[in-house]
Specification:
It is globular and about 60 Å long. The strands form 5 sheets. It has a 5-stranded mixed sheet. Strands 4-14-11 form a 3-stranded antiparallel sheet. A two-stranded antiparallel ribbon has the order 5-6. It is of the alpha+beta class. The chain has a single domain (8-404), classed as Cytochrome p450, CATH 1.10.630. The longest helix has 21 residues, at 106-126. Helix 6 runs antiparallel to helix 8 (140-150) and helix 11 crosses helix 13 (228-241). Strand 8 (299-301) and strand 9 form a beta hairpin. The chain has helices at residues 8-12, 18-31, 49-55, 85-97, 99-102, 106-126, 133-138, 140-150, 157-169, 182-185, 187-201, 212-218, 228-241, 244-258, 261-269, 273-285, 316-319, 355-372, and strands at residues 34-36, 44-46, 62-64, 131-132, 220-221, 224-225, 291-295, 299-301, 304-306, 311-314, 373-378, 385-386, 395-397, 399-404. Bound molecules: protoporphyrin IX containing FE. Protoporphyrin IX containing FE binds at residues 65, 78-79, 90, 93, 97, 142, 146, 238, 241-242, 245-246, 249, 282, 287-288, 291, 344-346, 350, 352-354, 357-358. The site of protoporphyrin IX containing FE has 27 residues, from helix 4, helix 8, helix 13, helix 14 and helix 18.
């Protein structure tokens, strides 16, 4: 085992200073790519892309995610479910957000939500006001899109995102070994979802609307319908997974556009560049900075033998900046040829199921911004103020001056 002395753990898990986190990742990649955080027993941190790439698909050897471990089965969100149950469960959730389903939300985003939000932004911008594009635009887009797809009341979408943020700030996977269920981390959010489900269950099934919530309630996994408690867990997970990470990445991308007028103009002239810029934003922002896994049975990764019970951090953000694969890996380059090689969405059997939805949202939300404003710039002041958590990365606020077209 190779350890780096001098409190690198504090830097790596620093919730307030992303620059220190990224410097710590770079140091680990160079000096201790498989590093024991906080003592010889781990938990371990995988810093290099090759090791993370090797470990991610090994779902029989590593388990983890929301509600993984010793929590009751009804509290296990999809990413915490083990094989073989996971495979069947995943097909069910995929039925709600697969590409052909995700495309259904396109007209709502294109003709209703984005224009309405940007109308209000443009009015304020025309009066010379600074606008926080997170609060007034990007916080709404992903949370409304997933609420729309699931059949959840749209007026609640922002509240759901805010509860999700509170879940993230309360640590979630950052406290390895605690195995907390979502309902324990955020009882208010859980009670709200349960209330909505109870309202639906009180109606005869023939009167249920045809939406994602009904689909979850009637679907079977391993021959049995999901219990209302299990549906509650999946809804909390989906509403959260669908909002937080996407708004983080979109915020990072808009930050890059605001500080690079040439890039903004290039994308205004050629929207086909948005797709690669999205991949590069996923790579450099890596909204999920790491994932925590528990070793289920002995396995060797990058020549290191992990024992059953070991906790292992999969360093997605570090892997995505690995200079062995990405030239000048710390630099945002919207035209990077291999940007899409990032691991920001995981890989293997747990690859992010929202991958098509988030790309669609990016195309629409960024396209609408480019349409509406001929230029955007960072307002004076702190600019990019990162979320206060080591696990997720994105701007908390992003105050901009926008110039309507
Ligand atoms: C920038 C946006 C996003 C990022 C960075 C992201 C990241 C991730 C990552 C890293 C995983 C793997 C988790 C694991 O292996 O435990 C994952 C899984 C998942 N994501 Fe996303 N995600 C994003 C957007 C979305 C959206 C919009 C949805 C829609 C609801 C979504 C739904 C899911 C689901 C359901 C899983 C679990 C898949 C499984 O375990 O089989 N994600 N995501």
């Amino acid at each position: 085992m190779r350890c780096v002395p001098g409190g690198i753990e504090d830097d790596l898990m620093n919730p307030e200073d992303p620059a220190r986190r990224f410097a710590a990742m770079a140091k680990l990649r160079a000096e201790a790519p498989i590093h024991a955080l906080g003592g010889a027993e781990g938990p371990w941190y995988l810093a290099r892309r090759d090791a993370v790439t090797e470990a991610l698909p090994q779902v029989l050897h590593f388990g983890g995610g929301v509600g993984a471990g010793d929590v009751p089965v009804d509290d296990q969100a999809l990413n915490g479910v083990l094989e073989p149950r996971h495979g069947e469960f995943r097909r069910l959730v995929n039925g709600l957000i697969a590409p052909h389903k995700a495309r259904r939300v396109k007209p709502f985003l294109e003709t209703e939500l984005c224009p309405r939000l940007l109308d209000a932004v443009a009015q304020r911008a025309a009066r010379g006001e600074v606008v926080d594009v997170m609060r007034d635009y990007l916080d709404h887009v992903p949370s409304s899109a997933i609420a729309w797809l699931l059949g959840w009341p749209l007026e609640d979408a922002l509240q759901l995102y805010q509860w999700t943020l509170e879940i993230c700030e309360r640590g979630m996977e950052m406290r390895p070994g605690t195995d907390l269920a979502l309902r324990e981390i955020h009882p208010v959010f859980a009670a709200y979802v349960e209330k909505r489900l109870a309202e639906r269950l009180a109606l005869p099934e023939s009167e249920w609307p045809e939406d994602g919530i009904s689909k979850l309630l009637v679907s079977k996994v391993e021959g049995e319908r999901l219990s209302p408690a299990a549906v509650r867990t999946q809804l909390m997970f989906l509403l959260g997974a669908g909002s937080e990470t996407t708004r983080d990445m979109l915020g990072g991308l808009v930050f890059e556009l605001a500080r690079d007028p040439a890039l903004y103009q290039r994308l205004r002239g050629d929207r086909s560049g948005i797709a690669n810029a999205c991949e590069e934003a996923l790579r450099i922002y890596s909204p999920t900075q790491f994932m925590v896994r528990r070793c289920l049975q002995p396995v060797t990764i990058a020549e290191h033998a992990f024992a059953e019970g070991n906790l292992v951090f999969f360093g997605l953000a570090s892997a995505n900046r690995d200079e062995a694969h990405f030239e000048e890996g710390e630099r945002f380059d919207a035209q990077r040829a291999n940007a899409a090689d990032h691991l920001a969405l995981g890989a293997g059997p747990h690859l992010c199921l929202g991958n098509s939805l988030l790309r669609l949202e990016t195309q629409i939300a960024i396209g609408a911004l480019l349409d509406r404003f001929e230029a955007i710039e960072l307002a004076e002041g702190p600019g990019f103020e990162a979320l206060h958590t080591a696990m997720f990365y994105g701007p908390k606020r992003l105050p901009l001056r926008l110039h309507p077209a």
